[in-house]
Amino acid sequence: MPQGMKRKYLCSFLLTAALLSGCESRGLPDETRTSAESTNTSAEPSVDEHFSEHSGETVSASRVTEETAEKEIEVTDPTMGTYDMPPEFYDRLYDIVGGFVHFNYYDISLAYCDLETGFRIMLNPDTHYYSASVIKAPYMLYIYRLALAGKADLEQKLTYTEKYRREGTGVLKNMEYETEFTVEELIGYCLEESDNSAFAMLKELFPEDGYEQFAASLGGVHAEDAKAKGGPQICCESALTFSRVIYDFIEEKNPYSENLYTHMTNSRNAMIYGGDGSEVIRKYGWYDGFFHDMAIVYGKKRYLLTIMTNFDLLEIDSREYGIFKDLSLLFAEYSASVCETENGGDTVIIKMPKWEENEMILPKDPYMLLSVVNMKLRDSYKSFDDFCEDMDVSSAEISEPLGKIGYVYSTKLNQFAPVPEPESTASESVLKE
Questions:
Q1: Could you tell me if 353 and 12 are in contact, meaning their C-beta atoms sit under 8 angstroms apart?
Q2: What per-residue confidence (pLDDT) applies to 187?
Q3: Is 175 found in the same domain as 119?
Q4: Pairing of strands 302-310, 290-298
Q5: Do both 299 and 389 map to the same domain?
Q6: Distance (Å, rounded) from C-alpha 421 to C-alpha 157?
Q7: Last residue of a domain, one of 327, 350, 373
Q8: Are 176 and 229 within one domain?
Q9: Of 336, 192, 319, which Cα lies nearest the Cα of 275?
Q10: Which range has the top average pLDDT, 109-123, 174-188, 321-335?
């Protein structure tokens, strides 16, 4: 697609720019529960089922106050007028996101915040996702806040038993029962290994109700994103607030700041990058297609970056990781090019909805092509011929590149499937019923 058309497409979805003032971070709620009042360690369904990953304002402060009105703007040029954003930024953003086949059918959101100026860029910021293990980062912050208030003892020992064993990510599930861990050790397992068993133990000691009060008190968190029970949700705007309060906690240099920084630096499954010479603290989340990373980047510039996706029904592999790397490196380069005084506390919100059927562009990458063609055949077409006719493409445009990676069309399955064994129909271009 020509560069001008890409800019026009992207800019047509730039809906609003809001001037945001900083809001004070709120502390702990007056009443917090620290006793093991709940005997049901799986009150939140996600403990047993949802947290089965394969394996992370003032802008505390992402609220718009009464004094800071949102304003509608029309964009005809990608420089954005007063926002002074380079056209190259939009070209690259389109190439990464708009040209990525999964984005055409699935959701993706991101939020960036410069910690020096408060300037924010957000793509589909209010799209909500299942939070997966991203929730473990603010939950561990909550426990540290309790410890600072004298309402939690991080040296308290808890005994790992069979009732706490959870599948999915973590290492405790492979350990012997009756092993003892301190609260601090369990926090480390939650943040570094995304350990579901450790999380179950901590949630019994520090129940969800107290966490929900804490999350709701932060001010920039959507009401539905302050929940811990029943499959908790999150959007990028709320994640930005969580990241900001975590950053503020680390910058306090309190007795637990270094602990939190170290645990989140050691979090596995690096997805968001910060560029050369930078340190990244993060909490990822991954469950059944929900694939997220929430990060604080310590580089030439300090900034927050969250990327959230719903790559549902796809096997997450290097291609999905690739979009996280490409997007985060784009923002790493962009953040380094922005002067400290540019853009102030403005927020640029970009809306890019899923593509309509008649706007679909078939990808050139054969594996991505395989994914989208099989999905469309499964959901919308009774045959490969119907697909080609509706898409106005020749069968050769699809079958030839897929044949090169070992896939041919099966009329029986109505899918492109691996080439059959040589003794059957290896010489044919399609499988027969």
A1: no
A2: 98
A3: yes
A4: antiparallel
A5: no
A6: 58
A7: 350
A8: yes
A9: 336
A10: 174-188
Q: What is the pLDDT of residues 166-221, one digit of tens each?
A: 999 999 999 999 999 999 999 999 999 999 999 999 999 999 999 999 999 998 99
Q: Please tell me whether residues 67 and 118 are part of one structural domain.
A: yes
Domain count, the chain: 2
N residues, the chain:
433
377-411 confidence digits (pLDDT tens): 987 889 999 999 988 899 999 999 999 989 999 99
Residue type present at position 256: Y
Residues 6+ apart with CB under 8 A from 33: 206, 207, 209, 210
Q: Name the amino acid, one letter, at 215.
A: A
Closest CA relative to residue 411, chosen from 384, 429, 388: 384
pTM assigned to the model: 0.68
Confidence class of residue 317 from pLDDT cuts 50, 70 and 90? low
Residue 125 covered by a domain:
yes
State pLDDT tens for residues 344-371: 667 878 776 555 544 556 777 787 788 7
Task: Reduce the DSSP state of residue 306 to 3 states and report it.
Answer: strand
pLDDT greater at residue 93 or residue 16:
93
Contact present, 309 and 97 (Cβ < 8 Å): no
Measured between alpha carbons, how far is 402 from 55 in angstroms, rounded to an integer? 30
Identify whether residues 374 and 342 lie together within a single domain: no
User: Looking at residue 164, which CATH number applies to its domain?
Assistant: 3.40.710.10
Count Cα atoms within 13 angstroms, Cβ side, for 294.
28
Single residue among 350, 383, 406 that ends a domain in this structure: 350
Does position 118 have pLDDT exceeding 50, yes or no? yes
With cut-offs at 50, 70 and 90, classify the pLDDT of residue 423: low
| Nearest alpha-carbon partner for 173 in 290, 52, 259, 265 | 52
pLDDT confidence of residue 80: 35
* 194 shares a domain with 232: yes
Per-position DSSP letters for 220-252, written without gaps between them: SS-GGGG--SSS-EE-HHHHHHHHHHHHHHHHT
Spatial separation of the C-alpha atoms in residues 237 and 127, rounded to whole Å? 9
Which residue range forms the structural domain that includes residue 422? 363-431
**Residue 52 DSSP SS3:** coil
DSSP 48: I
Distance CA 119, CA 97 (A): 21
Whether 369 and 232 map to the same domain: the answer is no
**Same domain, yes or no: 367 and 346:** no
